[in-house]
Amino acid sequence: MLARVVYVLALLLCLAPFMSSGYALFLGVAIALTLGNPFADKTRAWTHKLLSWSVIGLGFGMNLKIVAQVGLQGIGYTVVGIFSALILGYILGRILKVESETSTLISVGTAICGGSAIAAVAPVIRAKPNTVSVALGTVFVLNATALFLFPFVGHQLNLSEHQFGLWAALAIHDTSSVVGASMQYGAEALQTGTTVKLARALWIVPVAFMIGLIYSRKNKDAGAAKGKKPWFIAGFLLAAALVTFVPQIQPFGHTIEAIAKRCLVVTLFLIGSSLTRETLKAVGPKPFFQGVLLWIIVGSLTLTAIVTGVIH
User: Fold this and answer.
1) How far is CA 121 from CA 64, 114, 153, 201, in A?
2) Contact call for residues 181 and 172 (beta carbons, < 8 A)
3) 101, 132, 114, 207: which is closest to 169 by C-alpha?
4) Burial level of 51, CB count in 10 A (0-12/13-18/19+)?
5) Furthest C-alpha separation in the chain
6) For the chain, which residues make up each domain, given as ranges?
7) Phi/psi at 222 (nearest 5 deg)?
8) Rg of the chain's alpha carbons, rounded to an integer?
9) In a 3-state reduction of DSSP, which class is residue 228?
10) 3-state helix, strand, coil in the chain (%, to 5)
11) DSSP letter (8 states) at residue 111
């Protein structure tokens, strides 16, 4: 009875505006590891549905014209950066013998935009809730670290605001953390970081579709059940197109986006609450080590490219 009451109260708390996605995830994990999840079957059933609808809702906050313009300016290093991170993540995952789904989610979260990319790819590959929890937990820890580490390194190296904003957008996982770190550095850093990150986030769509095709083919070859069709990606694009080309509905779009973000927070709580002690014992430290290594390599190479003028 106590577990049920605490769980429901925690779920309602996640609806509050001050509750962030990271706190929601760790709140779910804390409850799961102490009291246990009394609604395990129901939360598993709702997780993928809420993830998909939340991603569609986030599309209402995108402006395709601005994002496409910025994206075209840096499309070369964006493509190279994303696919290099994905390939490197795959190699590290194989070397460390990290479970395939977990490795894929950590890699795509590092390559594009953290939790949002993980949320988009998870239903495509039919990732298990505990797998998503481990990937998101890794990303959120690194996001929190980046908020303090990146501004310090930027000042030590005397990076300009433009350079720092670019580095933050390319090397920090989540958009929220990019905004937080860039805001500490200056107005120009904030503008550069936010715009470049939004352009990068648009790559969720083709990357998620590509990964979905790879996993569907692999499952077919193995005689397993087919993965879910990523129809929510079309919904994401449609939502973004509507608010971009029909300006009159932008106020409505912002409302939908805000609701979607809150649904994503609730979803992350559900995901966190699906993590168990048995799962942690089975997973071990390898996924986190993969995430840290991948993040350090991507961040270092990106910073070197910016300082030397390869990326500008």
Assistant:
1) 21, 11, 31, 13
2) yes
3) 114
4) buried
5) 61
6) 41-307
7) -85, 0
8) 19
9) coil
10) 85, 0, 15
11) I
Burial 121-148 (b: 16+ CB within 10 A, else e): bbbbbbbbbbbbbbbbbbbbbbbeebbe
Any idea which residue has 């860039």 for tokens? 182
**The tokens 């935009």 sit on which residue?**
113
In this prediction the pTM is 0.69
Q: What are the pLDDT tens digits along the chain (312 aa)?
A: 788 889 889 989 988 888 876 678 778 888 888 888 888 778 877 877 887 788 788 778 877 776 566 656 667 777 888 999 999 999 999 999 998 889 999 999 999 888 778 888 888 888 887 788 888 888 878 887 887 899 999 999 999 998 999 999 999 988 777 877 888 888 888 878 877 887 787 788 788 888 888 887 766 544 444 445 556 667 877 888 888 898 888 888 889 988 887 887 888 788 778 777 766 665 568 899 999 999 999 999 999 999 998 887
